[in-house]
Every structure is written in C-alpha cells, then in structure tokens.
C-alpha cells in the first residue's frame, strides 16, 4: 500500500521482521566437593524449582556431569550464572555454573 504525502512523493510501507533474542542454557557442572543439599538449595533459590525437581536436576548433575537449570535470554542467563557463582563462593563451595547458547 502506498502512502502519498502532500509533496507528491510516494512512500512504500516496509515491514521489519524482528527475531526473538537467542536463548542460553544455564548449566551446573559436577564436582567432588559441593554437597548435594547445597546444589538443591541453589536450584530452589535461583531457579524457583520445587524440591522434587531440584533433586532430579541435582542427580542429573551428579551422574552425567552437568544439568540444565533453565533457558533464558543472554542477560538473564549471565545474571543467573553470576548469582550462583557468588553464592557458591560465599559458602566456600567450588560449584561451577556456566551458560551456553541453546
């Protein structure tokens, strides 16, 4: 559909396609020192999981070496990673949290 302004020049409407932002998986990595109960607390506190789901993710981390905590836009994922790492260090645990593109 063409729009005609008063000066006689025709302008065409253009549509812009906006893609959703890329999503990133936040992962916890297994180590031999962080207690399982601490991992459950982290999952409940920072990823709003109930105890049952947090336990399932913790067991996946324990048995497979890593587990997905959630999928988020980049800025939220990086904030979650920083929060988990800070919380772990404050409690003197070597728990590692990373993000990777989905």
What does this structure look like?
- The protein starts with a strand and ends with a strand.
- A hairpin with a 7-residue loop joins strand 1 and strand 2.
- The chain has 102 residues and is an alpha+beta fold.
- The protein contains three helices and five strands, in the order E-E-E-H-H-E-H-E.
- It has a three-stranded antiparallel β-sheet with strand order 4-3-5. It has a two-stranded antiparallel sheet with strand order 1-2.
- List low-pLDDT spans: none
Give the ordered list of helices and strands: EEEHHEHE
Residues in helices, as a percent range: 40-55%
Largest sheet: spatial strand order: 4-3-5
Pick out its properties.
single chain, 102 residues, alpha+beta, 3-stranded antiparallel beta sheet, two-stranded antiparallel sheet, elongated
Summarize this structure briefly:
With 102 residues, this protein is an alpha+beta fold. The protein contains three helices and five strands.
Protein topology:
Elements lengths: L1 E2 L7 E2 L10 E7 L6 H12 L3 H14 L1 E8 H17 L5 E6 L1
Antiparallel strand pairs: 1-2, 3-4, 3-5
Helix pairs in contact: 1-2
């Amino acid at each position: 559909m063409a729009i005609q302004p008063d000066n006689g020049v025709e302008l065409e409407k253009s549509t812009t396609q906006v893609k959703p932002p890329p999503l990133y998986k936040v992962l916890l990595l297994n180590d031999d020192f962080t207690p399982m109960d601490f991992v459950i607390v982290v999952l409940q506190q920072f990823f709003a999981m109930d105890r049952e789901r947090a336990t399932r993710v913790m067991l996946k981390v324990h048995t497979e070496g890593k587990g997905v905590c959630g999928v988020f836009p980049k800025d939220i994922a990086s904030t979650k990673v920083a929060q988990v790492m800070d919380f772990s260090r404050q409690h003197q645990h070597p728990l590692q949290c990373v993000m990777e593109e989905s």
